[in-house]
Amino acid sequence: MPKAATGQIVVKETAAGRVYALRFRAYGQRHYLTLGTATDGWNHARSQAELENVLADVRRGIWRPPAPSAVPAAWVDLTFHVFASEWLAEIAPTLRPNTVLDYRWQLSHHLLPFFHAHRLTEITVAEVDRYRAEKLREGVLAPSSINKTLTRLGQILDVADERELIARNPMSVNRRRRKLKTPPPSRSYLDQADQIATLLEAAGQLDKEARIDRGTSRRTTIAALAFAGLRIGELLALRWGDVDLATKRLRIGASKTDAGVREVDLLPTLYRALAELRATSSHEPDALVFGTTSGRQQNPSNIRNRALALSVERANELLAERDQPPLPARLTPHSLRRTYASLLFAIGRPAPEVMEQLGHTDARLTLRVYARTMRQNTAERARLKGLVEGVDWAPMGTGEHSAPQEATPTQRPKRKNPSNRRASNHGHGWFRTSDLSRVKRALSH
């Protein structure tokens, strides 16, 4: 039995004024029927009556799509520049400010310089391929960034197709072939105690060399990223009212996702760093923990360039002096978020708890970090645990202290339910059988 015809009224604010249209399904296909503008006498009541008439004709089998001439004259032969500008203005209120900036940048710096004078009907499969080839020749954007601009082009032309301004969206013709093949992204992070300790040491050296009134220390900033897994936006929005030193917890109330609104346990090393910072900072609950000297929110580039990048550069100098390999390339604040996951696994936290602390909803990335951490020997995981707990320990090669000794079997926690746990034959410590199966599934995708 065929499905009942359904539909809805669509109202768009355009350069031609308020335009009314119908979106409905007929004969197994989606249809978009433009009615007209408010100046032509169209309103919600008239559109509702027309929708009921159209659906009745569909049920009787007598409805036929109108000729292309039904498109308002004001929309005929629009340029990509005009239509894309209207598209962005329409959707901007539904997007985050940073997303709007990103879309505007893609349009103004890449799509519009190439397509701005094109009529919508002139954007063909061949023109899309020519745009892609030109971007490759320029060598300015990485293939993944070129693909993002192609995605944006496809979104814009989807709307033009829906409004029957073009015969078809050229990006929908083998859309996958239109995109460039890109290698999987490199997920850098630190999973060795020497690397993390040396980075903190380097940040501390830079703090001592900086002016006294420079503001929040680099060392505390990096410690918060690596020992609490904060996203850079969460770090910059953190206020002292969100830091509960008494219960040793952080409250993250501003995050990019609903799952990101969470409470984070303060690991001992970070607890001490924040306690020291609190002693020299404003005690007002609304004061930013990592604000500027004037109390304002820092720019994310300050964290990336002045705190992390300079600390990485100094850390690599220290590692070279100690005949140790440098830190992984392309370390970012998000790399330290993955570092936090590896630290939690190293000290024995189960995967569901790590996901909760990170505010993750997708287990795949979390479990990939878990698998890599579990491949480490127990001595390295003992060093990571010592670093987290803030024992009297320094990087190997400094001659100041030695690494903490590996935990003996008698120091391991007793198994509460031996039936659902087993010991690894490869020195990986204790883990849940269910955790291992999830790791295997995640790595197979």
Overview of this structure, please?
The chain is mainly α and 445 residues long. The chain folds into three domains: 7-72, no CATH class; 77-178, Tyrosine recombinase, N-terminal domain (DNA polymerase, domain 1); 193-444, Intergrase catalytic core (hpI Integrase, Chain A, Orthogonal Bundle). It contains 16 helices and eight strands. The strands form three sheets. It has a three-stranded antiparallel sheet, covered by helices on one side. A three-stranded antiparallel sheet has the order 4-5-6. A two-stranded antiparallel sheet has the order 7-8. The two termini are 39 Å apart. The model is unreliable at 68-75 and 399-445 (pLDDT under 50).
Write the layout of secondary structure elements.
Blueprint: E1 7-14, E2 17-26, E3 29-37, H1 44-60, H2 80-91, H3 97-115, H4 125-138, H5 143-162, H6 175-178, H7 193-209, H8 218-228, H9 232-237, E4 243-244, E5 249-252, E6 262-265, H10 268-279, H11 300-321, H12 333-346, H13 351-358, H14 363-374, H15 378-389, E7 421-423, E8 430-432, H16 433-444
Antiparallel strand pairs: 1-2, 2-3, 4-5, 5-6, 7-8
Helix pairs in contact: 2-3, 3-5, 7-8, 7-11, 7-15, 8-10, 8-11, 8-12, 12-13, 12-14, 13-14, 14-16
